[in-house]
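Key idea: predict the complex, not the pieces.
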Amino acid sequence: MITKESIDNLKNHLEIVDVVSQSLELKKSGANFKACCPFHGEDTPSFVVSPAKQIYHCFGCGAGGDSIKFVMEYEKLTYPEALEKLASMYNVTLNYDETNSKPKLDLKVLETINQYYQKLFTNNTIAKDYIKSRGISEFSIEKFEIGYAPKSIDTINYLKNNFLNLADAKDLGVIDSGQNGLYSRFIERITFPIYGLNSKIVGFGGRTITGHNAKYVNSPQTKLFNKSKLLYGYNLAKENIYKKNRIIVTEGYLDVIMLHQAGFNTAVATLGTALTKDHLPILRRGEPKVIVAYDGDNAGLNAAFKASVMLSQSEFEGGVIIFEEGKDPADMVKDGQIQKLNEIFSNPTPFINYAIDYIISKYEINDPMQKQKALHESNEYLKSLSLLYQDEYKRYIAQKLSIRENLVKVTNDKSRVKFDNSSTKIDIAELCIIKAILEKPSRLDLVLDLIDASMFEYHNNEFQMLLDDITNPSLNSIVLNERLEDYDDKRLENELLILLIKFYSKQLNKVLYEKDIDFRKKANLIRKLKDNISQLKKGKLVSFDIDLLK
Ligand code: ZN
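Result:
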């Protein structure tokens, strides 16, 4: 069991925006952040994260909670598993009760083995010669912690001799077991340690120098290592990305290292995969301009197209750079073409232009039939973009195909889901009052004396909920609803007056037309109600009287 003290300590380290943004792309929206909800399908964001309240809430499906709940739901983890995951993310130590404590994965294995590989590199001439031949400097070797993984048996012996936990080493993807026992995952390869968002090492990339079939390999998927979510070099580029508002996404380790060496220190690389939706949350961090820099071969062009479609649909700013004639950025740095690189990086082809150009380039547009197909395909792509872009790029497609602009169709039926898509009627004034109390629970004292849940015409349920338990998560939808104004004390008082006048006037009407009531009782009620209304109209809040409620 994890001790309560260490859970509380962990909670103090959690930042909900940070936690959620490791999995979702969050966009700033007023005081909060928004995203499309990961728990139900939707196109219009109704998932809200509040840094002030440290909670999230979906207005579409009602999912909600704190950082721990999010990790549990999103990663499908149990409570203790979510705590352990967050603890490792935030570098917080969890303490366990003596009873049935479970040994924790020792992450030190990765750090230790990384140091071992680095040490071996300095003594290995073949590895060093290869790295030097690529133009990589001593400084970069240290900065990127380039290492060398020896023969399998050497790694296994090193782990054993240093009493490192072999089961952990296996879970962390350093070694594995086969028919002949344990073997190392990285054998006679130059190693590039890969860091996660928490700047802790999570795995390796390895390049063979002994002519092994697979030129590059990565760590296998582990608890910590998910290659479709990681970017090589991000740990070293992060600060510069925030500063320069730019991130350069390349295809390889060497590109990253060489670009950093030449001062392009916002370069990162995907780990042998294309950019995927899973990368978007990292790319969104700091809202940088994204520059996709790929090789000019068919695979590179196609990957750049797919990235352009995805990034433009997600409304990322930036564009594409293609390195022609097999010259990758690493070669250009090696050849000293820094000035040229500078120019290239300053002029990327915007994503939408690149995507449209790519589509049209597939067709022989002098042939009317082919032109028709090119129009159809670029039109379909255009329709997947925001209305503003559709309008902007209609002209571009028309020009490219030399056709009339009105032949390019845009859509105007983008069905915008309303923010409050519940069918129940809502009353803004009532909700504002509830929100004001939730914002400052000390106001409950004042309010308790004046109103009863039954005075709320539409939201008596919510008010009752508030009275029962002010921390009820179902109330988060009110706290986070940006359409509701934030009342100060004075405004709250005014709104309460209005609500009460409305309520007592309605009661007065009811009583006046009520037949089954004793005459004296009726007269008494009417007098009380009229008196209340007149007091309220003078701006005086009156305590409620149980007799006046029915
Ligand atoms: Zn939802």
